[in-house]
Amino acid sequence: MTTFPTARTVRTTPEGLLWEPSERWVRGRTGEVTVVDSRHPVLVWEPGVPVPLYAFPRTDVRDELLHPARDPATGTHTGSQIFYDVEVGGELLENAAWTFPAADLADHIAFEWSGRVGRGLDHWYEEEEEIFVHPRDPHKRVDALPSSRHLVVEIDGTAVADTRRPVLLFETGLPTRYYIPREDVRLDLFEATDHRTGCPYKGSAEYWSWSGTADVPPHIVWSYPDPLPAVGPIQGLLAFYNEAVDITLDGDRVERPVTHFSETLAQHRPVRTPR
Fold it and tell me: Three-state DSSP class for 103?
């Protein structure tokens, strides 16, 4: 009989991986085919990566769908030993699965999520709820709290939002995000885009870009039209990247944070033609 650890303690491997067992029932599918179905998944954090992934006992994986990778993606995961292509219904998902060399994770297989890296299994479920992009971190908390604080957002000296009814979203490891009613935002200064993202804690977001001439990254404003129930108060409200705008809260200027979004925003600043 196979035994599984149940203690909710994070363990460390010599390779620098952090891992802990999860008690959630997790399934991963591609199309309508279930590739993995496990009641004993393991959450794994790779060094320098802020979000976890799942690894599963091989006995919970449809092994016949896995084939040794024709072109292994060496170096893409911490100490990964063996990569697999996943073949379902004639479709080949290259390097969609792999193993870790850590003794603690022997006989476990991890999978890519298409919502996170653009390839891999495209539907994931924890219990009966579909999860997007990556697993939820059990050590992370997200709280959306309505407030009466006075919030002003400026871009290049122009006030683009002014409200006394924001919703403050506190998310472990990220700066506070300020969600603002649409009536209190100068949306006439922005243009809707077709950019969309998904978040396992909040849902699917839509975006707007600044229409002025200031040096502002695209997709600077976002909203969750149909957020997950846990963050219901942010529904339809608008938020700005603190990293790229000026925010004043109760008369005090909020320092622009430096996060993993900062580099991405800087890379996507529009090229302006000198006038």
Answer: helix
| Nearest residue to 102 (alpha-carbon basis) of 207, 13, 23 | 13
- The reported pTM is 0.81
Short-list 145, 161, 142, CA closest to 153:
161
For 220-261, give the DSSP string.
-EEEBSS--GGGGGGBT-EEE-TTTSEEEETTEEEPPP--HH
| Structure-block tokens of residue 216 | 């502002």
Spans of all domains in the chain: 11-131, 142-267
Average pLDDT over residues 86-108: 93
Q: Tell me the C-alpha to C-alpha distance, in Å, between residue 146 and each of 25, 90, 170.
A: 33, 50, 11
User: What would the two tokens of residue 51 be?
Assistant: 């979000």
Nearest Cα neighbor of 195 from 203, 187, 206 is 206
Task: Name the strand (E) or helix (H) holding 175.
Answer: none
Domains 11-131 and 142-267 belong to one CATH topology: yes
What's the whole-number average pLDDT of the chain?
91
Topology (CATH) of 11-131: 2.170.150
Neighbour count for residue 168 (Cβ, 10 Å): 18
Average pLDDT over residues 53-66: 97
- Identify the CATH assignment for 142-267 out of 2.40.50.1070, 2.170.150.40, 3.40.50.620, 3.30.9.10: 2.170.150.40
